[in-house]
Structures are given as C-alpha cells and as structure tokens.
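During the reporting period the student researcher (J.K.) took over the structure-prediction task from the postdoctoral fellow and processed the backlog of single-chain submissions. One of the processed entries is reproduced below for the supervisory committee.
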Amino acid sequence: MALGGVDPLLIAVAAPFVAAVAAPFLARILHHNAAWLLAIVPALIFYHFTGYVADVSAGQRFAIGTDWIPTYSVRFSFYIDGLSTLFAMLISGIGAFIVLYSGGYLKGHPDLGRFFSFILLFMGSMMGVVLADNLITLFIFWELTSITSFLLIGFNHKSERSRRAAIQALVVTGGGGLVLLAGLLLLSYVSGQTEMSAILQQGNFLKDSDWYLPILILILGGAFTKSAQFPFHFWLPNAMEAPTPVSAYLHSATMVKAGVYLLMRVHPIFGDTAIWSTILPLFGGATLLVGTILAVRQTDMKLMLAYTTVASLGLLVMLTGISTEKAIEGAVLYLLAHSLFKGALFMVVGTIDHGTGTRDVTKVGGLWRAMPLTFTFAFLASWSMAGLPPAIGFIAKEILYEGTWVADQWHNVLITAVAVVGNALMFVIAFAVAFKPFLGAKVETPKTAHEGSPLLWLGPAALSVCGLVAAIMAHTTGELFIRPMASAIANHPLDTDLHLVPTQWKAPVNLSITTVVLGIVIYLNLDRVRKLIAGILTSIGWGPDQGFDQAIRGIVRLSAFVTGKIQFGRMEGYMTVTIAVMVLTLFVPLYAFNEWPTMPEMPDFAFYEWSIFAIAVVGLIAVLMAANGLVAIVSLGIQGFAVALIFMLFGAPDLSFTQFMVETLSVVILALVMTRLNLAPRDHRRRSQKILDGFLAITGGSVLGLTLMAVTQVQFNDELSVFFNEYSRVIAHGRNVVNVILVDFRGVDTLGEIAVVMVTGLAVLALIRITTPKAVEEETEKADVIKTPIPEQKEGVAS
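J.K. obtained the following structure tokens:
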C-alpha cells in the first residue's frame, strides 16, 4: 500500500540513504548503541521484501517507477522478480546484522558515525543495483557502489595500505563501470528500449545481431571487474584493509556479487550461445583455481576467506556460463549458501581478531574454551562452506556437480574437474578457519582471549543457523527462493525438487565424496602444500597486483611526459599554438567545403563613421609602434573604444556602455599589472619570431573575418529573436530584451561569467601584490637595520 502516494518500494530504496544522513548524529548521541536503532532500517526493508516472496514464487513480476529525464527515456524505475527479490533480501537481511556487528567491532572508534553513514550508503547503492530496471539507473547505482566501497575500504585513511587498496578498487571497478556504460548504451540502441524488463521480453533478438559480441564484451568487462574475475581479481583481497564489517558485507551480499547479478540478469539476452558458454566457464574456472590456490598459501584468516570469495565468484560465473537448468539452479543455491556462510565466517574472524589481537591462523589455538559461542557458529558456517550435510552448502554442491557433469559441452569433464579441485581447496580453508584457531593446545595471544559482546556474535549466529535451517527445509527453500530466482535467470519457469538426503546414488554423490577425501588429504598436509604453493608463486614473480602498480606508474610517467611537452612554460608558445589551431580550425572547413563568402560592396560611410575607423587604425599603428608593453596596452584600448562607438551609432547603447566599461577596466587593470611586473622595456623576440607572429596575426584576423562574413551571409533564422521579443515581457517582466536574456533566460551562464571575472580579478590582485626579488632584498635589509642592535662604542675604538 502506498504511503502518502509514494510506493513502499521507493521508500525501501531511499531508506538507507536517509539513515546514512542521520547516522552520524545518532552515533554522537548513542555511540555504539546507535547500531541497534540503525539496524531497524535494513530489518524493515527485509520485512518489506518478504511480502513479495509468495507472489514472486507464483510467477508474478512487478515494475514501478517514475520519469526522471523523459527526453532521454531515463526513468527512476525498479523491477521485482525472483532474482532481485532474493538479492534484496540478502542485502537487507545481512546488512542489518552487519550494522549491529559494526557497533560492537568499532566500539569507541572516534569515526563510528562516519562508518555507519558509509555502510548505509553502500547498502542503498547495492539495493539500487539489484532492483534497477532502467539501464541508466542501473549504471548510476553501479558506480555508487564503487564510490561507497572506496570510502569504506579507505576508512582508515591514515594508513597508506588502506589508501592504496581503496584507490585500486576504485580504478578497477570504476573503470569497468565506464566499460559497462558503453555496453548498456549499445544494448539500449540495438533493442530500442531503456528498461531491462522490456528488453528481456524481446527474446533472442540480440543473439543473431552483429552487435552481439561487442555488447557482450563490454558488459562482461563491467561484470568481471566488479566480481573480481581473473585477471582483475587482485583488488578484492587488497580490500581486506577495510575494517572487518566491511569485508563481511562486501564478500557476502554486496559489491562483488553485483557482477554475478548482472550476468544472471542478462543471461536471457546473451546466454546459451557458444561464445557465452566458452568465455564464462573459461574465466570463471581460472578464477576458481587461482582464488583457492592463493587462499591456501595465506595464514591471515581474512585473506584466506577473501581469496575463497574470489574462487566462489569464479564458480558462480562458471555455472552461469554453462547455462543448463541444473547449472543455473546450482549457481542460485551456491550464491545463497555462500552469502550465509561467508558473512558468518568473516564476522567470526573479526571477533577472533577483536578478542585475541591477531588473525594469523598459526598464532592462535585452543580458543574454544574462551570463545565457545564463536567456535559454535564458526563450526556451523565452515561446515556449510565445506559442503557437508546437513548444511545448505552440501545441497548446493550436489546440484552444481549435477549441473557441470551433465553439461552438453565437450569440456564438461574439465569443468567438473576444476569444480572438484576448487571445492576441495575451499574445504581445506573452511576447516582451517573453523578448527585451527579453536582446537589444539592453547596459544598465548597479544590480548587475553575473550568472547565478544552480543553485537559481535548475533550476526554469525543468525547466518550460520539460517544455513542449517535452509538445508533442513530444503523443499520450502527451493519453492520460495531457488525456483523463482532460477526461473528469472532462465527467463522461463523451472522445476526444482531439493532434498537434504540424495534420492539416489549418482555421479554428483561420487564427486562430492571425492571432494571431501581430497580436501581431507590436503588439510592434513596443509603446511607442506602452503610452502609448495609459496615457492611456485615466488618463482613466477610478479602478478596482476604488481602489474597494476606498474601500469599506474606508466600512466603517471606518460602524463608527465605529455604535460611537459604541451605545458612547456612559455606564454608566447601557448599563444602561438592556440592561434595556429584556431586558424586551421576555421580555414580547413572553408577550403574543404568551398564555403568562401561573397565579398560585400563597400558601404557609403558618413564622415564621422570614417573618423571612427581612422581612430581604430591609429590605435593599431600605436600598438605596433609601442616602445614597451605598457604603451601597447594603453594603445590597445583605443580599439575597444572604437568598437563601443560603432555599437552606439548602430542603435545598441547598452552594448556600447558595457564595452566602454569593460575596456576601461581592462586597460586599468592590465596597466597596473604591467607596472608591477619587471618586464624588459623593449621587444626581446628574434626577427624570425616576429615574422611568425605577424603571419599568424594577419592570417588569424583574415580567416576570422572571412568566417564572420560567411556566417552573416547565411539566411537568418529569427526563431530566437521572435521568442525573446514575445516572452521577455510576459515571462521575465522586462522590457530590455538583452538584459532579460542575460539575467533570466541565461542567468546561470551570466553567473558563471561573473564568477570568471571575479576569479580573474583575484588573480590579478595576487599578481599586483607579488613582491619582486629586489624588493624582498631591500625589505630584508631594512628589517636587519631595525632589528640588529648597534654595538656600544668603546673609548678609542671606532664602531
């Protein structure tokens, strides 16, 4: 039901942004307890979207919005189906627990209010991405996620590592966003639509188009950079410089899932083609292996989880690329499972770090006695990540293996092998995070280990238990969430029949057993495997992360080189280049298109009109014969006064007055500047430079005159004149048309011109007040005379 004429969905989208504005004020009053109040906002948003579940599972879809820029068909519109509903529930539901967790994790931090504001802005941006229907609206929210993630990753702005990670994430994802914009604009051009819902209804119109491949590559560029696909994966682990609440939210429900969401959204348009089914499994599989291998190498638990997120994103991309119904169902199930267990595990690692002072897996042990609740939730979440029953991760693994194994492509065996190896390594990381810190002998830590506050363990508790409940109620989970989302991706109804216990012994069960056995073997030899991988990576040398630094350094050097060539530090050179470019710009079209004007007849001037032209000529001769710059400036004013007199004679007294004022002010100001600058009294240019300057001056004046003559000989279009004459009195209540145009119709332009004049005046004032080196020396000598005491004279000794 609409509230005050506004659809509740629009309120749900706007609510995080409103809460972000209020967050700093609430944190100033309530401190970390503001988390309880702020968490109500995403909780209510989650509750709102639960109202769509029944309708969406029944096959209904909703589209609402309002016109934004109608001229360009840009609408502030949103689309609700199974795909957007589940994403919105994950973002808002996990977001509520992240806000609570932030209050406990950053308790006492002086910038807690700022953090709350950033995290809520991030939430709202991601909500906009998954709900947006209009392509331009989608792009705006897409880039907002990059900007807000930049603020969150660089939250500890005094740390150089945080600043580098934030800039790296912004460059990679922001650059990918610009590539995506090009793809969305082309998609809109080819389809003739700006709403995603309308484009999806057009069927396979693009798959047979010549534009298919360019648009696909551009959209994949945006999706791959956002979801950290190889070779753009390096920014995501570096983003771990952000506080743990950011990492937990970033990896579970936001930002990195945006690319996966986009691929799933456009699957009906691009999916199930040879190109799609080759590129996505290739890059997704490579990302899966790279992410898990790099994860095994790490000892920092946040980095271990970060690299497994890279791997999981690769797995989701790979499954989306396979395009079979079971692969899509497996992708949806794994996305849900990953959001639950990864959010919980990141918060668990943050709690360990908060309670012990370290997150190095080799420097903690035996924590289960001091942190029993944290251990319980870590165990439940890691059990799901390992793909063991009875957890939602187990069902997801079974279905995704069914999707890879029955794939019709020739490379199904290779894809399945990659999935098995990747899942086995994720099994290793899951157990390393869940067991190594808590079991075994107790290890002394920098801080005395202690359990976290309810704000810290409430999120892991809810997410890990949800993963267990979702598996136990597998059929209901499938009907309410998995089937609607998979049907939206496939763009036609799908049937799902999920069970916690496999109904029959088939290939996915054998593959799951193989995964577990392989994972146990690697886990038991984890130290040796870690050393082996570290040695291999060391022998390889630099990777994409170092390549990013080299690319940035190359860009800086290139820009410095180009700037040095263009901005060479001589005003004379700048003027020469500017006038030469102007001459070419005006001359080439006149010559190429034969647009030379017809020479007009000499008009019959009155004697006083001839006298004005004579004054202008005298002023020109005075400028050319001036002995120094000051005389040239004053003589140049004669030209302006002559033009002002011409305006007056031809019935434009207001323009004439303006010209008189501007010319007088210009001459006075320039004269003041010239008197303060220590310039050479005479022209210092070489003869060759004088000849070049004279040629450019004559050529420029001639070409400009020819252009003006050509323009005035074109048939006059009086539409604007008629409009201003007709409406100046009616709309702007002014009789002076010129003044009305300046003040009302183009008032913003006039304001800009006034601002330019003001800035110029301030710059001139600064130049006037600059003290020359000689004057500085004289002032210093005077000061020394005043401040240095005169020594007392002794009898018979000259001072």
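The committee noted the following: The beta strands are 62-69, 74-80.
J.K. will present the remaining backlog at the next meeting.
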